[in-house]
Amino acid sequence: MLKRHYSLAMSVALLMLLFSLLLSLTIGSASLTLADIVRVLFGREGVSPLAETIVWQIRLPRLVCAVLVGAGLAVSGAVLQNASRNPLADPYLFGLMAGAGLGATLVSVVLPPQLISLALGAFAGALFAVALVFAVCAGQRWRKVEITLLAGVAVSFMLSAISSFILYFAEPFAANRVIFWLMGSLSRTDWHSVMLLAPVVVVVLLLALALRRQLDALLLSDESARTLGVNTLRLRLVLLLATALLTACIVSQCGGIAFVGLMIPHIVRHFFGVTSARLLLGCAVVGALFMIWVDNLARTLLPQQEIPLGVITSLVGSVFFLLIMRRQRL
Amino acid sequence: MLELSAVCLRFGAKQVLHNISFSLQKGEFVGIIGPNGAGKSSLLRLIQGALSAHSGHILLKQREIGRFTTAELARTLAVVSQTSAPLFALTVEQVATMGLLPHKNWFELNSSYDTAQVALALKKTGLSHKSSDAVDTLSGGEMQRLYIARALVQQPSLLLLDEPTNHLDVQYQHQILQLVKALDIPLLACLHDLNLAAMYCDKLLLLNNGEQVAFGTPAEVLQPQLLQQVFGLPCQIALHPLINKLQVTFIPASTGLAAEQAAC
Q: Rounded to two decimals, what is the model's pTM?
């Protein structure tokens, strides 16, 4: 990947992101033009209070959350694919989604109502899953990345089985609530979600960029990276923990959004390059772009109804991915 | 440059290396030879800090190897070993650029000097014209040259090579060894081929079952009795008339010449 190709790809992606951000603010049940949006954003006169509320309190926080969630999942996926040397790695690698599902199930079905919020339950569940994987792999086992991956799969199945068992006996309304929540949605996000997600996404992205050379070195082999002065054990632990925390935050705010963390890094590698700096920045922009339009589709495809994000990401993502693979570009 | 004294290595109760002592001076090429399982690669891993000695001292530039941080060690010695192709299609230039890693801070960008260093390393290893090619399109010999280029970018004081000629054809074997010999960096290499070792190395370290059998010039180490004792086959050693280097010919028992040779 030549430097000029990267610059071109990044410029096009950034322009598309800017255009998408503005256009997305006009999409919704209330009719607002691009001119209205610009007036609201830049505090010009002649804007109705309703339009201000719609933009500032409903559409903008949701849009910023879409940017953060898309960027966060794509960056996490890229980091985990490189750090685990596994092209099929995604942010839910360590049973995070299953853990979040169990947390949400316990909160909705088992615990007294209103005791803990669904988001907090899911966050705790996701962290519990990661802690379980880390406990299993503590000590020498960290040296083998395959064992970590297998432990993640085992924990994922175990926690999913417990969730399914509880949901099987649960009251249908509560079970449906958990199931729909797990499919992912940005409808519950607000400025509080932004305040939670923004610092975590920025810190993880900066951390990954700071460790970009080490991540590149891991692409060859652990042995090779060690000869370049990389402490592979410590590097993996730091990156796995950071991405797990980021993913747990995302899951707690918008449920499960599959395929973004797996697919976006592979698409970005093709257009932006495979070295970590280009990959990470590309993933942040393309992940955000992808999530903005997925959310737009989710809000507008069916009248008076939102389609779960996870359904669209999986459907759109897999079709796009298969088309590219068919053209042998990946 | 490098000095080992009475170095021992154990894996649990198993003694892998016992009482290894030798030194490598500036400008020297020392070859480690011996049969499979003799401890050659373990010795190399000890020196690169991947394993810790049970006893003895390893001094690199008059400093105990255990006192180096991983980054300091990577700035001082580079390793070329058998390496698999990268997970994703990195280019030749990108792999060579990895050699800058030990010299860079977290957010430091590559300078024009760094770029020139990478270009020079690729030129020295004859890969300039392939700098934009994907690594998975390289031949075995080119791949090995690429890892040597990456090692050069590290600007090491010592270069370690683990079986650098494995799986290469004759032409590439000589090309790689001529290349590293011309680098003006002290070299320590594990080699299987005794004739290549005799041709290129200034000194040889002969190991067997983790024990140091001999250390010295090829003429001192390549003795028929020693080699027969270590490899279990009689051999003939002669000075090659054209290249003026010692050449070893092992005589398998099936040829019928072995008994005759042993009698001599």
A: 0.87
